[in-house]
């Protein structure tokens, strides 16, 4: 960027914005006789994230484990690849670059519930006002082109506000299922 013929730390430029262009949620509710079906989706559009996991597993700088992506690295004149050459103990492959900034836009099905309300005649016989059985699943599906563990990258501004938008392969939220019964007396 400074046109001195060397690619180094003086060529650092603005690469993206952690703040999404749009974010929010929406849902669907369907009622049919005694059944209720609810869904909740969340989304973010236009959020740039530094995939720091790739930064460390594709740097080819030391003897740490590396991703299989480094098998595509540049090796000889004429090679066309998206991974630079391996430079053990030197070079700047570990330095943040546009290679590691990814669009973390996503749509996630956060929850889905199917509930059944039992007949009033049954609840009157067993002495309760209302009886419902339900099954709820959480974090069911995420649609994204992001290559990291989870596009919904968290942050901790109390420790360092400059750590926003860095994915360090935190464990994504688990898929979980809850079965339950609601009773009113």
Count of individual domains: 1
Q: Give a short account of the largest sheet.
A: 5 strands, antiparallel
- Residue-averaged pLDDT, rounded? 88
C-alpha termini separation: 72 Å
Protein model, in words:
- With 185 residues, this protein is mainly beta.
- The protein has one domain.
- Helices cover 7% and strands 36% of the residues.
- The strands form two sheets. Strands 1-2-5-6-8 form a five-stranded antiparallel β-sheet, with no helix packed on it. It has a three-stranded mixed β-sheet with strand order 4-3-7.
- It is elongated and about 85 Å long.
Provide tags for this entry.
185 residues; five-stranded antiparallel sheet; three-stranded mixed sheet
What does this entry show, briefly?
By secondary structure, this protein is mainly beta.
Task: Walk me through the topology.
Layout: E1 22-32, E2 35-45, E3 48-51, H1 52-57, E4 101-103, E5 106-117, H2 120-126, E6 130-144, E7 166-167, E8 176-184
Parallel strand pairs: 3-7
Antiparallel strand pairs: 1-2, 2-5, 3-4, 5-6, 6-8
């Amino acid at each position: 960027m400074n046109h001195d013929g060397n690619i180094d730390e003086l060529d650092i430029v603005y690469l993206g914005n952690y703040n999404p262009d749009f974010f929010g949620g929406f849902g669907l509710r369907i009622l049919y006789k005694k059944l209720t079906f609810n869904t909740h989706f969340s989304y973010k559009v236009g959020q740039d994230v530094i995939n720091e996991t790739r930064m460390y597993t594709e740097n080819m700088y030391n003897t740490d484990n590396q991703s299989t992506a480094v098998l595509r690295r540049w090796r000889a004149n004429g090679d066309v690849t998206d991974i630079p050459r391996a430079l053990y103990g030197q070079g700047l492959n570990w330095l943040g670059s546009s290679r590691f900034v990814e669009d973390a836009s996503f749509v996630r099905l956060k929850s889905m519930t199917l509930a059944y309300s039992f007949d009033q005649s049954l609840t009157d016989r067993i002495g309760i006002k209302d009886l419902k059985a339900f099954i709820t699943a959480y974090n069911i599906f995420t649609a994204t082109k992001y290559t990291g563990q989870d596009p919904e990258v968290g942050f901790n501004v109390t420790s360092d506000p400059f750590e926003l938008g860095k994915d360090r392969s935190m464990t994504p939220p688990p898929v979980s299922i809850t079965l339950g019964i609601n009773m009113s007396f």
